[in-house]
Design brief:
Blueprint lengths: L1 E3 H8 L3 H10 L9 E3 H10 L9 H4 L14 E2 L3 E6 L5 H10 L2 H6 L8 E5 L5 E5 L4 H9 L7 E7 L6 H13 L3 E6 L8 H9 L13 E4 L8 H15 L2 E2 L6 E10 L3 E10 L2 E2 L3 E4 L2 E9 L5 E2 L1 E2 L4 E7 L8 E5 L2 H22 L4 H9 L5 E9 L2 H13 L5 E10 L4 H10 L3 E4 L5 H10 L3 E4 L2 H16 L4
Parallel strand pairs: 4-6, 4-7, 7-8, 8-9, 20-21, 20-22, 22-23
Antiparallel strand pairs: 1-2, 3-10, 5-6, 11-12, 11-19, 12-18, 13-17, 14-15, 14-19, 15-16, 15-18
Guanosine-5'-diphosphate binds next to helix 5.
Main location: cytoplasm
Protein name: Translation initiation factor IF-2
Keywords: Cytoplasm, GTP-binding, Initiation factor, Nucleotide-binding, Protein biosynthesis
Length: 478
């Protein structure tokens, strides 16, 4: 465990320069940004007459769970809704139709910015937030990262089709998450529509809708004619009321990243959904392993926003790097704290990845010699946008076989950095860049460590290449 002189000074509430002086007297020449080891730090702390307190993780990181809002501070917030269902059953059309019911957009003339989520104001003045990426992949991925932002799932089933594989997957994911469901039977305008058949088929999955005297709300809708739209909104509001969704808006904000990307002009951009508190322009924050400051915010109508209350999705400018979907954004008191938390998380992430990644080339061959069942082919993946990263990970996972598996040591968005190179070097893995290149420092390290680097701009070429490499690792007899 090491700490920079500056961070230690912050924690001791002493001037960093005084620490440097004391260290000098102890025979150590260090600057405020250099790190010192734990023993030296403890010596310094005693020197300054402080008590030594070994910090626990919650002292360094942010412990949101321990920070509970009192009952009186809680106020109603808008429900957050995700639409799931089989491909072509009308998820996107429904999202568009619901967006069209927004009274605010109606007034303003309606410019639509796709930021990954949008909020509508109903005729009755209620607010509803919709996640704009339909399908259960995003939902599941967020959950895997511990982010449960969805309050209500709308299960879309086309009235002219039936329960399809992805419908069933969506049902399972929704049940697993314990999120209440509303069934929207879409394409009700079609003459071959048979909503009753859908209701009956749902029984097989223990979903008993209202029409069948159950307690799951259902509604027949058509994105084409607008049929059932008001009723669907009504049902969302009823469900939301049952859930008593509330949050404290008067506190430092906590938000979840819905999606993130690197914009060539604006830098890292993230769409976040505020869970509690109010996010303000100028706020200093930590998100995942990045720190930053809110430079500007935009809503889904492209308007500049100064303050974002709970459940409002906003696109945030001013992050130090591109976070991951599902990361938590937390506002902190000052920049020193933000940097400290981010640095701590980075260290921890690197330590974890290195510990998990013992697969050097030698290990791989000795594993082969021992005829171990599965060999791992480690890679580090960097891409220009989150969507590509995800597509590449999925594609790579698919080319794994019983004998050799792709192991993604790290993946992310943005230029290839020193930490990527260090990780690749430690694990004997190649770095795969998709529409990205290394920064200057990383390039230096690549040359020094002779780390293999490969660039692609077409996903299937990337997977073909990895597949060939993997076949090479297995040798001719396999
Ligand atoms: P997704 O894959 O679930 O997002 O489905 P889409 O929203 O892209 O819809 C798939 C197809 O069904 C498109 O051709 C739509 O025009 C059509 N569609 C969607 N909703 C309706 C509807 O309510 N009525 C009719 N007639 N067609 C619809």
């Amino acid at each position: 465990e090491a700490i920079t002189v500056q961070d230690l000074a912050n924690r001791m509430a002493e001037k960093a320069a005084d620490l440097v002086k004391a260290l000098f007297k102890m025979g150590m020449m260090v600057t405020i940004n250099q790190t010192i080891d734990q023993d030296t730090a403890e010596l310094l702390v005693t020197e300054f007459g402080h008590n030594i307190k070994r910090v626990s993780e919650s002292d360094v990181d942010i412990d949101t769970a321990a920070d509970v809002d009192v009952e009186e501070s809680l106020q109603p917030r808008a429900p957050v809704v995700t639409i799931m269902g089989h491909v072509d059953h009308g998820k996107t059309s429904l999202l568009d139709a619901l967006r069209g019911t927004d009274v605010v957009r109606g007034e303003a003339g309606g410019i639509t910015q796709h930021i990954g989520a949008y909020q509508i104001k109903t005729k009755g003045g209620d607010l509803i937030t919709f996640l704009d990426t339909p399908g259960h992949e995003a939902f599941t991925e967020m959950r895997q990262r511990g982010a449960n932002v969805t309050d209500i799932v709308i299960l879309v089933v086309a009235a002219d089709d039936g329960l399809m594989p992805q419908t069933i997957e969506a049902i399972n994911h929704t049940k697993a998450a314990g999120v209440p469901m509303i069934v929207a039977i879409t394409k009700a305008d079609k003459h071959e529509a048979n909503p009753q058949k859908i209701r009956e088929r749902l029984l097989e999955h223990e979903i008993v809708v209202e029409e069948m005297s159950g307690d799951v709300q259902d509604v027949e809708v058509s994105a084409k004619t607008g049929q059932g739209m008001d009723e669907l909104i009504e049902k969302i509001l009823i469900q939301a009321e049952l859930l008593e969704l509330r949050a404290n808006p008067d506190r430092a904000a906590e938000a979840t990243v819905i999606e993130a990307k690197l914009d060539k002009g604006k830098g890292p951009l993230a769409t976040v959904l505020v869970n509690r508190g109010t996010l303000k322009v100028g706020d200093i924050l930590v998100v995942g392993t990045q720190s930053g400051r809110v430079r500007a915010m935009h809503d889904d109508k492209g308007r500049q926003i100064k303050e974002a209350p709970p459940s409002l999705p906003v696109e945030v400018l001013g992050l130090g790097g591109v976070p991951m979907a599902g990361d938590t954004l937390t506002v902190v008191e000052n920049e020193a704290r933000a940097r400290e938390v981010a640095a701590y998380r980075q260290e921890r992430a690197t330590a974890k990845r290195t510990a998990q990644a013992p697969t050097s080339l030698e290990n791989m061959f000795s594993a082969l010699a021992a005829k171990q069942a599965v060999i791992e082919y480690p890679v580090v993946v960097k891409a220009d946008v989150q969507g590509s990263t995800e597509a590449i990970i999925n594609a790579l996972n698919r080319i794994s076989t019983d004998e050799i598996k792709v192991r993604i040591l790290a993946s992310g968005v943005g230029a290839i950095t020193e930490s990527d190179v260090n990780l690749a070097q430690a694990s004997g893995a190649p770095i795969i860049g998709f529409n990205v290149r290394p920064n200057a420092k990383a390039r230096e390290l690549v040359e020094r460590f002779k780390v293999r680097m490969k660039y692609f701009d077409v996903i299937y070429q990337l997977t073909d290449d990895v597949r060939l490499e993997m076949a090479g690792q297995l040798g001719p007899e396999r």
